[in-house]
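Give me the 3D structure for Phosphatidylglycerol lysyltransferase.
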Amino acid sequence: MSRKNIAVLIGMLLLGGGIFAYELRSVRLSQLLREIYRLNPWWLLAAAGCMALYWVMEALVVKLLLKGRVERFSFKNALRIPLVEQLFNSLTPFSSGGQPAQLVALMQSGVDGGRASSLLLMKFIVFQAMVLLNFILTLVFGFKLVAAKFTYLAWLVVFGFIIHLVVITTLLLIMYWYNFTKALVRLLLRPLHWFMKAERVTKLALTLNQKIDNFHRESLRIKNQTGMLLKASLLTFIQLVFYYSVPYFVLLALGLHPNFFEVLVMHIMIVMIISLFPIPGGSGGAEISFRALFATFVAVNSKLVLAMILWRIMTYYLGMFIGMFALVIKPDRVKEIDQS
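Predicted structure for Phosphatidylglycerol lysyltransferase (340 residues):
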């Protein structure tokens, strides 16, 4: 990790500690200690197990996408990829650092850069598609619940959904309507000439065109691999279900008995809201949305605050610290399989 990343890590830990301290301001210490003492450790272990299975599923997706392309890509190598991704997603705005970090981790294993880019492109498309599918299924089967629970947070959920929809639509446009996408980019860049120098606009246009060309070239390799994409989609769907289940087991650990489907719906909505916040990990927005949405399940304030802290530790800080260990583990070197 660079000095900048270490500084951001320390900053995020301090910010998280500050948020927790602020949330605990209205909770008596004796109450909090009583709730901690009453925690069921087995349900907490189940919550941690869901996160572990979340990473395992992603590792299986990595192994699937590399099948037939490299020799002996170990499970240790595959598991290292999502853990490194989790670390750098936690340290960068909008989780933007996860993709480059995964690329470096794959290349450290001996995977060719072009092949690694193709794999990560496919994985990213599948992941975004499954996030959208989960959200759409939530609206279809839980519309009444969503309409009843989401009042002032509804617009945040809508904006989060729009962001994910724009991302997946852009990717599909580049894959299937390449010329149209290039023309659309040229059209969207025209207003920039009104308040930017021509040299900067030209440089930006060249960069965007290069990225579009690279993306389109890689997408041509994966469009015909329907079977592999379907398997990867199924594994990713299961992966997300494990992640969305974490708060359910946290609430069980606190002695509560919520409806599993309702908790899943709430967590899917929180994920949509977090995507709007540019601060790494959606810090601040994540905690606020959790408290607002799960207040319907937890009437006691001390339980609600403790549930929020435990959920945040499981879904954010746990991956951050495990990712630090994964980063320093030396990967096994692999050999490329000749595709000619």
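Residues 49-332 form one domain. Let me know if you want a second pass.
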